[in-house]
Design a protein that fits this description.
By secondary structure, the protein is α+β, with helices and mostly antiparallel strands. Helix content is about 50%, strand content about 5%. The strands form eleven sheets. The chain has a six-stranded antiparallel beta sheet. A hairpin with a 2-residue loop joins strand 24 and strand 25.
Length: about 1900
């Protein structure tokens, strides 16, 4: 409709049949309408030609680059004015033509109406905040925009918010990617029927115009691209792109018009005919020809051929269905790369200055050239993508291409195009300088295409997607291969990737790999991959490039000069390029039907491994001192084996190779395990830290299940199938401890230094324990595995929920079902752990919510083996043991130091039963026997750990013994079974009781055995007792292993034999340097059982300590699982083993009893072993150190009494002794101070003053008090705003400016206090120091180069004793102590005398004991500290006078400092004084000293004596009615004065120290004024009737005796006096509306008066408390007034409290009350006559301020985040990158934003100065963290929002919902109010005004 109307409009204008000359400005709309009409006719050829001509002219006229050069074409567009104008003109034309003469906006709206928006498809770029819901997602990459997320229902789902890394698009409405239940309201499937059909003429013009427009865009891109020698520079490309910005944006806007327009665009982009017609370059148009040539050049230079060059292609064009990339023939593994490679290699080699990198070329099979080199473009879409790639994926283009995706037809076409360009994309990526940005943009596109299973399957079938991907990956890695140096350096044929290359180092391959992983997650695609043998071969080839990469060679002499960090790249590459695709494939091999796939993978994997062994010339021994952690082929093999047995019920033996291959397979994984032990034994220390890094990464949680777990599993498989003796001896040989396993006390180790022997032996035994007890792949179910992993992590340390999620190795494939936060995770967690809610320590350090193991987990499930396997740091094992020990002590199960408990294992899967043969082989038994013997004999290098592992292995053997072997059978057997004569059989149970008598050992000639033994000949007679031969046993592990290996090899093949022999003999001849070995024969006469029993004696230190428990209770043998034995130390372990041995065999039981019966000879007194000696020495040393420490601490303690809690906690109510400021001995008359630097005590004197360590800071906390109790809420919508005019600061400001308008400036500045904002607060830690000591301390700090958190130049330091932050020293005034002040004794002078004395004292200028004129050190210091105080706050908070620099300013500022400190102390006490003196503020107060300093300076200014408020208060003056208003500006009337300010002025003007009676006198006088003010305020507040009633009521009582103390009388008098001044006259109706009609009762009036006076009384009482050291009484809130009044001496002492208390009774008028009141009211009269309104306002003083609060925050963080993270800044109107909001006033600011910077101050710093006088508390919206700015420093405070598990989520990385933690917020507010940010938070840094 709209379009038709538009056409009609066009028709009314004079139609123009022929187009005017191009020079004339055209009426675009009219032309458009005319053309549209012409095209609507059935015969529209003429119209079409006309339009073509117009477009030709308009669009081709503007060649930006040509125009810029010549400018001659620009005129043709009719726009003139340079290229920019021409382009705009062209766009205008296009818009007009599209709209067909109507308005463009209406056209857009019309098209939108036809949008069948079933998909959201919103495209976003990096840093956008999106959501992911795992509950609704089908693909792991699913994401939603915030709008769709919040409109859908995801309550209770597992969702999180995330910041997009690479950009993405919203999947709402796409049922391929997410479940429909999660769609939002807008995208719940609409049936297409209710969307009307698009009228033909609406989009008709678009179909004509857009092809030309897009072609024009392509021409630009062709023109702009110049192929210089070294690839175009960034700058040139960006220039072209900037010029094209408007065009691309125009296209982008079109896509946003909805489905109708998108389908037109799709038609245009994919139409092959259009493309052919316009771009073939065959026409006569020269420009087009030129651009076509440039296009061909660009293709060629990219190493691509354009098929048209060879006419052959023209003939056999593939059908439209298949892409021109059809793969011909079998994709070979690798091939010589075509022309591309040459160019590629040159620039690679140029950039890589590695001399020795000889690139390796492989030519086996042919790689299909077409994948890499052929591109043919047949539509605009294809060429557009080509240029997008050429220009390295400009963001705008990417967004345009993605915005089109909701169109299904486009989606398919685009995906095919993308696949067709895949190889080209990767080539460009490899060369790109900006590979990171480009990678992100590529993935941004590909993830949208490949996450969709249906689409991925289609492309796989039609476009050979898998072939392309694998080939491209292979091609990419081939560019950086080097020769492998593993094993046989010279002759190795194996090649590996070079981890030092940029390609691996910068992770450039990740877009490819992530796409590959993405498509393998679709079952249909993965199945194709697993069925395609060719692909599998290629893939294994690819994996073998990583096999053995990053080889480490052990440095034996020098420390390595340069530590290469390539290992990061190597681990990342194996994980991403090999392991993750492997997990992806494995996830599809879950059921029996998939057996075939596993067989395929295993088959090709073994072939690749065989090739690898051949390539590296591997025979049977690994090369020494080399290790690689990367064996992806082994791991593929292992993981597929595991899957086959676990899920597919395959018979393991059917997929295992022969014995020889198994032997080879086990070598390298075993080498890694041995190397781990070597690295931990510091044998690789010369290789630098990085080798430790590798060992840690190998076991770290993200890598372990793709690295160490498969390795151990593979070793378990080999062990279960190989000969056990061979395997065991291989292990000890690999760990290089063979020579140690001898009975002799000394031995020779040819391959290992003595200091490493012990830890290597521990390593070997630990490895065996892990190998034999780990069941991860041998029969545990997924839930059991999860539980075991979780228990292991929790035992090491308490963990937060997120760190636990991170530490549990999840199956890296996201579709595996164990998704973080999945059901099983939560249920297992709640089963094994208790949640500890986040707590606060007084130090303010924030705890997170933690999970800690339940008691029964420690009791039954703690598994040290799992802990050892999973620890990255060795200290974690210790930590787990310590926690276990603590649990046993606490639960009373075991008091001592326990050994790791033995845990029962899950039963083995039948396929792996063979593994247990390791425990029942003679080799192991001989080793165990030898080690037990050595431990018993105290040989060197054996530790408790060794014994622990030996016992563990014995116990494992007993648990897993073959049941069927009965005692009888074992004793038969005959000699033939004893071929090696140590033990009769191979069953551990029977071998344990076998006695071994003599052993022949090889020992160095120096060994003690040699000298002691009789010659061999004589002892040979005794050897008859041995069963078989007359010789003692000799045992050599190496020989054993050789023999076994030989047998196996002979069985396999005879020719292998020849290869093996020479190698073995040469390797293992002992080096010549070894000293002579000789043979000795030892008499042993022990069995394993007897050794165990003796060990028990040795461990317990008692003779005959072992008593078989079954002798008392035979039952014990039947059920050996007894809780008594489950926890304990070595003794318990030995008992447990003996019990198990006895219960498994009657013979053992009998033998144990026999051994115990023989009275064992007394053991010599217990010899202390070296290890124990060490620990004893350690203990002694520790003890001594402890004593020393105690002494030191005692010295400090006197000074530091209970310092910690008071420094840390502002609120602790402990009644501490006030530090140093006051000392308690009454007899001392002078205060004594300790200097914390030099440690001397003494009084403060004039020449050597002592000072208090203080921190001065400006504060606006007082100004934030409001008059209502409810704290303000943080605004979370546009409607809510916070206005600051009800704050205390604002009210005081208004009052001051009102006074200044009407009264004399100098007197205004005496009538109020400032410092509500930017007041200076002084606080101290209570420590004192000599000021000269402090100066030298500051010097030393200045010279100290250590980076402190404070700036010494600004005078900042930390207190030398308690390290509290400070920035000044407040001198202590020499003189008496506060307590026993001689001035305190009350005198009985009358009030009149006192008033006179006060006046005289004030009039005496500078009457100070210390005269300022004589420059003493003290006075200098006082001046400098005053300067510090002034400089603490900004000038604007000090200067309020109209005449700048007037002394009145300083005067006002100084008494206001006192006011600020008193008011703040009142707030710290909770706003009232009910709690009395027992509050912290008194403990550390420095008010007394501060008063001295202020008083000293105040007295330099004299007040005009004729205008001293004291006179007005205490004397009646002659009233001169004429004098009323003649002066220009009168003084401020006394009734408008702030009484508290008057008090401070009066007191500070007195000579110090002040006398108590003078103080009381001043207070009494001021109270009369205060009371009068209260009455006046009350009278103004009430209504006309009330007033007249009171006036009369009071007048009647005026004559009574105590009229001056009756509030009614006084009130009535005040009312009548003020009545004269027209104050009440102008009472309009609005007044009455304002005051709510209160019925005033005497009680309510009394309360009103008391409330008015209370703030003054509180401040005065505090002041009295500080000046005279009197305690504050505590009381109930309702009696606060009377208690304070009597404490101040206002109440006569004889006052009875029976009848209700009346405030007026405190009055003590110095002159007749009615006269003075008349005088005071007269002052106002003349003012109120002219300004009644203002006069009233000034009388009502708001006195009831509530405590200050921070803004109230909403419960859920999301409400803040959603409102603020998109909010624009009010200053720069942009959305800030780092938005922040002030928690004091709610202002929204840009953190670090340069946009809002003013005079080099960024906005947050600026705001902190304006809002908090230098203290700012900001919530960072994007990080959920609070940042504190204090002056020139800042710190991260932490977060007050925690997730459901009590954890912070800094930077919103996890994106889980966050909820307010009220306790934390309270702590924050407390620190703000008490000004303790500096003390409590430790990590401060300078912000350089950049926040």
């Amino acid at each position: 409709m709209a379009a038709a109307a538009a056409a009609a409009v066009g028709g009314q204008q004079p139609s123009q049949p022929e187009l005017p000359a191009p020079g004339l400005a055209l009426d675009k709309a009219a032309t458009a309408a005319h053309l549209k009409a012409a095209l609507s006719r059935p015969d529209n050829r003429a119209g079409a030609e006309e339009l073509q001509a117009l477009l030709e002219r308009v669009l081709s006229a503007e060649r930006p680059l040509a125009a810029a050069a010549g400018g001659e074409d620009a005129a043709a567009a009719g726009g003139g004015g340079g290229p920019g104008a021409a382009e705009e003109e062209a766009l205008e034309w296009c818009k007009c033509l599209l709209a067909g003469g109507g308005g463009y906006d209406e056209f857009c709206a019309a098209v939108r109406a036809y949008d069948p928006a079933a998909l959201c498809g919103l495209v976003w770029t990096a840093n956008f905040v999106a959501y992911r819901c795992r509950t609704c997602g089908i693909s792991p990459c699913m994401s939603l925009c915030a709008e769709c997320f919040h409109q859908g229902d995801h309550t209770g789902h597992d969702f999180n918010m995330f910041r997009s890394q690479a950009g993405g698009a919203c999947d709402c409405g796409d049922s391929n990617v997410m479940r429909e239940s999660g769609f939002c309201k807008r995208h719940q499937i609409k049936s297409s029927s209710n969307i009307p059909c698009v009228p033909k003429d609406l989009l008709m013009m678009s179909e004509f115009v857009l092809p030309r427009f897009i072609f024009c865009l392509i021409q630009y891109l062709r023109e702009g691209y110049n192929e210089p020698a070294d690839g175009p520079s960034e700058k040139d490309l960006n220039k072209v792109l900037q010029l094209l910005e408007p065009q691309i944006s125009f296209l982008e806007d079109l896509t946003k018009m909805g489905g109708a327009m998108r389908s037109v665009l799709t038609q245009v982009l994919t139409n092959q005919q259009n493309y052919k017609d316009l771009t073939s370059g065959l026409g006569e148009n020269a420009c087009v020809k030129k651009s076509h040539e440039k296009y061909l050049i660009a293709l060629k230079s990219s190493g691509l051929t354009y098929p048209e060059d060879k006419l052959v292609y023209g003939v056999q064009e593939p059908s439209a269905g298949t892409s021109s990339l059809a793969v011909q023939g079998f994709v070979g593994a690798t091939g010589t790369l075509g022309q591309v490679d040459s160019s590629d290699e040159d620039d690679q080699d140029g950039s890589q200055g590695l001399g020795k990198r000889k690139r390796v070329k492989l030519s086996s099979g042919t790689k299909d050239q077409s994948i890499m080199d052929v591109l043919k473009h047949k539509s605009f879409l294809e060429e557009l993508l080509f240029w997008t790639i050429k220009y390295e994926f400009p963001q705008k283009m990417v967004t345009f291409l993605l915005n089109m995706l909701p169109d299904q037809e486009y989606k398919v076409a685009f995906t095919k195009t993308f696949v067709q360009h895949y190889a080209f994309i990767m080539k460009t990526l490899k060369k790109s300088h900006e590979s990171d940005t480009m990678s992100n943009r590529i993935v941004h596109i590909s993830v949208q295409l490949f996450s969709n299973e249906e689409l991925a399957r289609q492309v796989t079938e039609e476009c050979q997607l898998l072939d392309i991907m694998v080939t491209v990956l292979l091609y990419m890695m081939e560019s950086c291969l080097i020769k492998s140096e593993l094993q046989d350096e010279e002759n190795s044929l194996h090649v590996v990737v070079n981890c030092g290359e940029a390609l691996l180092k910068n992770n450039t391959y990740w877009p490819l790999v992530s796409d590959f992983i993405n498509i393998l997650s679709h079952q249909s695609v993965a199945k194709r991959f697993l069925e395609d043998h060719g692909l599998l071969v290629t893939w294994m080839n690819f994996v073998s490039f990583f096999q053995g990469m990053n080889l480490n060679k052990r440095e034996l002499n020098e420390h390595v000069e340069f530590e290469s960090q390539t290992y990061y790249a190597a681990f990342a590459a194996e994980l991403e390029a090999c392991a993750q695709p492997m997990w992806g494939l494995l996830s599809h091999c879950k059921v029996r039907e998939t057996q075939e796939y596993t067989r395929n993978v295993v088959r090709y994997c073994l072939e690749a491994l065989q090739d690898w062994f051949d390539a590296i010339n591997f025979v049977d021994e690994p090369a020494p001192n080399q290790v690689t952690f990367h064996l992806p082929l082994h791991r593929y093999y292992a993981m597929f084996l595991s899957k086959a047995v676990k899920c597919q019920e395959l018979d393991l033996d059917s997929v295992l190779p022969d014995q020889e291959m198994l032997m080879k397979l086990m070598i390298h994984p075993l080498q890694i395990q041995a190397s781990l032990a070597e690295i931990h034994s510091n044998m690789w220390v010369r290789n630098g830290l990085q080798i430790k890094g590798q060992a840690m990464t190998y076991v770290q949680s993200h890598f372990c299940n793709s690295m160490i777990d498969p390795d151990i599993y593979l070793l378990q498989v080999c062990a279960s199938r190989l000969d056990p003796d061979y395997f065991i001896s291989s292990v000890f040989e690999r760990f290089k401890v063979v020579d140690l396993l001898t009975m002799a006390s000394q031995h020779q180790n040819t391959v290992l230094d003595a200091e490493h022997e012990r830890s290597m032996l521990e390593g070997a035994l630990t490895f065996l324990v892990i190998l034999l007890s780990l069941r991860l792949h041998l029969g545990m179910s997924d839930d059991e595995i999860l539980r075991a992993e979780m228990v292991a992590q929790l035992c090491m340390n308490d963990r937060t929920h997120s760190s636990l999620l991170d530490l549990i190795p999840e199956n890296p494939n996201p579709k595996s079902g164990i998704i973080p936060g999945s059901y099983s995770f939560e249920s297992v967690l709640s089963a094994v752990a208790d949640f500890k809610a986040p707590v606060f320590e007084p130090g303010g350090s924030m705890q997170q919510g933690m999970y800690t193991p339940k008691a029964e987990v420690w009791d039954q499930e703690f598994d040290p083996v799992m802990v050892i396997l999973r620890t990255v740091y060795r200290r974690d094992v210790q930590s787990a043991m310590d926690r276990y020990t603590a649990f046993l002590k606490q639960s009373g199960k075991f008091p001592g130091n326990p050994w790791p408990p033995y845990k029962k294992r899950t039963s083995l899967h039948p396929s792996y039963k063979g593994l247990m043969r390791l425990l029942h082989c003679k080799t192991l038994h001989i080793v165990l026997f030898t080690l037990l013997y050595k431990i018993l004999m105290d040989h060197q290098n054996l530790s408790e750990h060794v014994l622990c592992m030996v016992l563990y292995l014995i116990e494992l053997g007993l648990e897993n013994s073959a049941e069927e072997e009965s005692d009888e059978e074992a004793s038969v057997g005959g000699p033939e079974r004893c071929h090696d004569s140590w033990f009769p059989g191979s069953n551990l149970v029977s071998n344990m009781r076998h006695f071994i008598n003599y052993v022949r050992v090889r020992v160095p000639e120096t060994a003690p055995e040699v000298k002691r033994d009789s010659p061999a000949s004589t002892s040979s007679d005794n050897l008859g007792s041995l069963q078989n031969s007359g010789t003692a046993q000799v045992f050599s592990l190496v020989a054993e292993r050789r023999k076994k290996f030989q047998e196996i090899i002979n069985r396999s093949s005879s020719e292998a034999n020849q290869v093996v022999r020479p190698k073995t003999s040469s390797k293992w001849s002992a080096p010549g340097s070894a000293p002579q070995l000789t043979t000795a024969i030892l008499e042993i006469k022990e069995s394993i059982l007897s050794l165990l029993i003796k060990l028990h004696h040795k461990l317990s230190g008692k003779q005959n300590s072992y008593y078989p428990p079954w002798l008392d209770d035979i039952e014990i043998l039947i059920q050996p699982e007894i809780p008594k034995y489950s926890h304990g130390d070595g003794i318990t372990a030995v008992e447990r083993i003996l019990l198990k041995a006895a219960s498994q065999s009657r013979m053992n039981k009998r033998i144990i009893e026999e051994i115990c019966r023989k009275v064992t000879p007394p053991v010599p007194p217990k010899k202390v072993t070296a290890a124990e000696k060490k620990t004893l020495d350690k203990e002694e040393r520790r003890q001594k150190a402890r004593e020393r420490q105690q002494k030191l601490l005692a010295e400090f303690a006197s000074r530091q009494k209970s310092f910690m809690e008071t420094a840390m906690d502002v609120d602790s109510p402990e009644n501490d002794i006030p530090m140093e400021i006051t000392t308690a001995e009454p007899q001392v008359s002078e205060a004594v101070y300790d200097c914390v630097i030099c440690g001397q005590s003494g009084p403060s004197s004039e020449d050597r003053p002592t000072g208090l360590v203080v921190l001065l800071q400006a504060s606006s906390v007082l100004g934030q008090c409001r008059d209502n109790v409810e704290p303000k809420k943080l605004p979370i919508s546009e409607e809510e705003q916070i206005y600051p005019w009800d704050t205390c600061a604002a009210v005081h400001d208004v009052r001051l400016s009102l006074l200044q308008r009407y009264f004399k400036d100098s007197s205004c500045l005496l009538a109020v206090s400032i410092g509500w904002e930017g007041g200076v607060y002084v606080q101290t830690c209570g420590h004192t120091l000599h000021i000269d000591c402090h100066k030298s301390y500051m010097e030393s700090l200045r010279n100290d180069q250590v980076l402190q958190g404070f700036s010494v130049d600004k005078g900042e330091f930390t207190c030398p004793l308690c390290r509290q932050f400070a920035n000044s020293v407040l001198p202590c005034y020499p003189g008496s102590n506060v307590e026993n002040n001689p001035w305190q004794r009350p005198s009985n002078k009358s009030i009149q005398d006192l008033i006179k004395e006060v006046e005289e004292l004030q009039g005496r200028p500078g009457a100070f004991p210390v005269s300022i004129s004589s420059e003493t050190n003290l006075s200098k210091e006082m001046e400098s500290v005053m300067k510090d105080i002034k400089n603490t706050t900004q000038k604007k908070y000090r200067d309020y006078s109209k005449t700048p620099g007037s002394p009145d300013n300083d005067f006002l500022f100084m008494y206001s400092v006192a006011r600020t400190n008193l008011e703040l102390e009142l707030i710290h006490r909770g706003g009232n004084l009910c709690s009395g003196g027992a509050s912290t503020a008194g403990k550390r107060s420095c008010l007394n000293q501060l008063f001295h300093v202020l008083a000293l300076h105040m007295r330099l200014y004299s007040i005009d004596s004729e205008y001293n408020p004291w006179r007005k208060l205490t004397q009646l003056e002659e009233m001169n009615p004429q004098l009323g208003y003649e002066e220009r500006q009168p003084e401020v009337p006394i009734l408008y004065h702030d009484v508290t300010s008057l008090l401070l002025i009066q007191i500070l003007m007195m000579p110090q120290p002040l006398r108590k009676d003078h103080f009381t006198c001043i207070v009494k006088v001021l109270f009369t004024l205060l009371y009068t003010q209260a009455l006046a305020a009350l009278s103004v507040k009430c209504s006309e009737e009330d007033r007249s009633a009171w006036k009369h009521a009071g007048a009647l009582k005026k004559s009574t005796c105590d009229a001056e103390k009756s509030y009614e009388v006084l009130l009535s008098f005040v009312i009548s006096e003020l009545f004269k001044g027209k104050l009440y006259h102008e009472e309009g109706t609005q007044e009455c509306a304002m005051v709510n009609p209160i019925s005033w009762s005497p009680e309510s009036m009394e309360k009103c008066l008391q409330d008015f006076c209370l703030p003054f009384l509180r401040i005065t009482s505090l002041l009295q408390h500080h000046l005279f050291g009197e305690d504050l009484p505590s009381c109930q809130e309702e009696e606060e007034f009377s208690v304070l009044a009597s404490c101040l001496g206002l109440l006569p002492t004889f006052y009875q409290t029976e009848h209700p208390f009346i405030s007026a009774s405190c009055l003590d008028w110095p002159v007749p009350a009615f006269d003075i009141i008349t005088q005071w009211c007269f002052e106002i009269k003349s003012f109120t006559e002219r300004h009644a309104e203002q006069g009233k306002a000034l009388l009502i003083q708001e006195s009831k301020w509530k405590l200050p609060h921070l803004l109230q925050l909403p419960e859920n963080y999301n409400t803040i985040f959603q409102y603020y993270h998109r909010k624009t800044c009010s200053v720069c109107t942009k959305v800030p990158k780092d938005p922040a909001v002030c928690l004091v006033c709610g202002t929204f600011v840009c953190l670090k934003g340069l946009c809002c910077k003013q005079q080099s101050y960024c906005e947050c710093v600026l705001h902190s100065q304006n809002c908090g006088a230098g203290t700012g508390i900001f919530l960072l919206i994007n990080a959920s963290v609070i940042i504190i700015i204090r002056g020139h420093r800042f710190c991260l405070w932490g977060s007050v929002y925690l997730d459901a598990h009590g954890e912070e989520d800094r930077d919103l990385r996890r994106g889980k919902p966050l909820y307010i933690c009220k306790e934390r917020y309270k702590v924050l507010e407390q620190q703000w109010i008490s000004h303790t940010f500096d003390h409590i938070n430790k990590r401060w840094g300078p912000h350089y005004n950049g926040l």
